[in-house]
Amino acid sequence: MLPDDITTPAFLIERSVLHRNCDRMRRKALDSGVAFRPHVKTHKSVEIGRIQHGGWTGPITVSTLAEAEYFAANGFRDITYAFPIAPDKLARVAALAARIERLSVLIDSERALHAIEEYHASHGHVFDVFLKVDCGYHRAGVDPDSPDSVRLATAIARSEAARMQGLLTHAGHSYNASGVEDIRRIAAEELACLTRFRALLATEGLGETLRSVGSTPTASVVDTFSNCDEVRPGNYVFYDAFQATIGSCALADVACSVLATVVGSYPERGALIVDAGALAMSKDRGPDHVDPQFGYGIVCDISLRPLPMRLVALSQEHGKIEAHTHVPVGTRLRIIPNHSCLTAAMFDRYYILDRGKVVDQWKPVRGW
Amino acid sequence: MLPDDITTPAFLIERSVLHRNCDRMRRKALDSGVAFRPHVKTHKSVEIGRIQHGGWTGPITVSTLAEAEYFAANGFRDITYAFPIAPDKLARVAALAARIERLSVLIDSERALHAIEEYHASHGHVFDVFLKVDCGYHRAGVDPDSPDSVRLATAIARSEAARMQGLLTHAGHSYNASGVEDIRRIAAEELACLTRFRALLATEGLGETLRSVGSTPTASVVDTFSNCDEVRPGNYVFYDAFQATIGSCALADVACSVLATVVGSYPERGALIVDAGALAMSKDRGPDHVDPQFGYGIVCDISLRPLPMRLVALSQEHGKIEAHTHVPVGTRLRIIPNHSCLTAAMFDRYYILDRGKVVDQWKPVRGW
Asked: A35 in contact with B at a CB cutoff of 8 Å?
């Protein structure tokens, strides 16, 4: 059983599940013959970054420059900063890029390209650049059906300030799926969209531009990666209640949970209070498009067996559980988070478990 | 104007507004003749803890033992840990209590009292104890109308393991109010409920038990504190979009905002992307009981003037704004958070502004 000396709330990782998730995705990429550049934003931990690459400091994707700097300081040499670059961050990008093999940035506007060109004109730095393409998520990225997008791609390819690294898309709309077939359809559309856009660019003389794709739902449900050149999933290292619900994984594939203690028990109103609130779990509502009553995580016993209880409300430090069995104050529960990326970021320390024993503690980076 | 060298997203505090909020609440308590024990969980910063007390390290309320230890290490000597005590945290409580004047804990069950008595039996420590009373919020606390609650209060008062410090309630249901009158009604009910329960205890010989109350909405709308002995508001130091919407404060009273940079501009679909996502803002939905379309914060220009834009979606690092005017990539915006407690906790550093200049940087404590 778990040692009693872990202060709750605590973020727990099942080592064997983490390794299984990492190995499976890495092998799928290897067997598919595509480049593997996993995202590290879910865990922000160099230890897990290495596990994603089977022990090696391979190519990675990050969501903040703080992550880029931290992973670079720990031996990772080829990093894609997969977030639209803000002009005022170029100096920081150039400084880090000079210290590693490659730090690629993302642009999706002429304004960003101009910013890079201005920086190049005064400082001489040449940026490795991905063009971000919107294949249906409609968050960031250029419209692949617009002539403006072709013009921007051509301008990047010809710019002295840039080395074109390829096209990058993220099928975030796969998170809106309600099942595996839905995810498969979105994955196929994403790949078709990117491949079509690349063909359009080829007619402009851009050659075989690299196609980089990534989202855990799409990467998880396909048997093999095809019609792309690089994959960038991230959440798969842990998965979470959301991914299990939409069909990206089984519940047994979720590698993380939050250990909490029952601090209040009110059987007369069918409620428990645990010491895992919004600052432990995050206020992510999870797959409420599948189940509006889902709650803020899956409540389990200490052995990770789901219990007939719902985490119905979170305030800063209080988690309120609807429960119709009596659970004494002091009982420890484990809660599978709705969104492991947001939950992991709430903790300064991860406890690594192997057969119920804490075998290691890792500290993630945070901030920007 | 703001200096360009702040990396976004960043948490900004307007010093004059912070001081005004702190002074106003402290004076109201002073003028009312009640004890003032402000909560520090909203900011978790010793600098602001001192400002709450007009420069002094006065009595405070905390929500975690990490806060208690941090504030104690910085000279705060009288602390109420206003969260139901977990039995396995008693050793940590006793260790800290031995180093300061008073560290009170909260209990609301016989099980917790037994835990204290067991600890006392083996270690001799006597705990300062508040009985948590539920005056309508129904999160934690004993039912003031139940004979069991009178029995528990009497048992605490008579226990050798405890020094009864008083009755403590939190009108968290005031957050469900939609306006000032509604908040006033809840405030009056809370006070009446606690006073009635105290009278019940007096008939059992418990004397004039201290009545401690606290919630920012109720503390903000009353002109004077009456029918209580101690007040514990916390959020009022910053306030936020939620408090301004339900009527606890004016929008000009909100002392904090998140500085963000526009990294994507998509006028064809009326959208902007900023670099403040869920890890900067938190996913708190704010006053959606007043306005279901409220969004994740109030989008303002760099001078904190609200703009006709809505922060409609947050993913990990992306904030998506619905905007019908063109805003160039690189533009800086400020977002007034829905829930300042959760947003502040996302940042390791606060930037303190005075007339548009950064005059200080403070680092809050985090964790448990």
From this structure: no
CATH superfamily of B34-237: Alanine racemase (3.20.20.10)
Angle at A63 between CA B269 and CA A140, to 5 degrees: 10
pLDDT tens series, chain B, 368 aa: 566 679 999 999 999 999 999 999 999 999 999 999 999 999 999 999 999 999 999 999 999 999 999 999 999 999 999 999 999 999 999 999 999 999 999 999 999 999 999 999 999 999 999 999 999 888 889 999 999 999 999 999 999 999 999 999 998 888 888 899 999 999 999 999 999 999 999 999 998 899 999 899 999 999 999 999 999 999 999 999 999 999 999 999 999 999 999 999 999 899 999 999 999 999 999 999 999 999 999 999 999 999 999 999 999 999 999 999 989 999 999 999 999 999 999 999 999 999 999 999 999 999 99
Q: Hey, what are B250's tokens? A: 């004016």
Reply yes or no on domain A250-362 having CATH 3.50.50.60.
no
Residue numbers of B between 294 and 353 with CB closer than 8 Å to A: 313, 315-318, 320, 328-330, 341-342, 345, 347-349
Q: Is B95 on the interface with A (CB under 8 A)?
A: no
Residues of A in contact with B64 (CB under 8 A): 317
Cis-peptide, bond into residue B9, ω within 30° of zero: yes
Cα–Cα distances in Å, from A329 out to A3, A73, B111, B169? 18, 44, 7, 19
CATH number of A77-233: 3.20.20.10
Ranges of each domain in chain B? 34-237, 250-362
Query: Which contiguous run of DSSP H or E holds residue A219?
Result: helix A216-221
Q: Give strand pairing partners of B226.
A: none
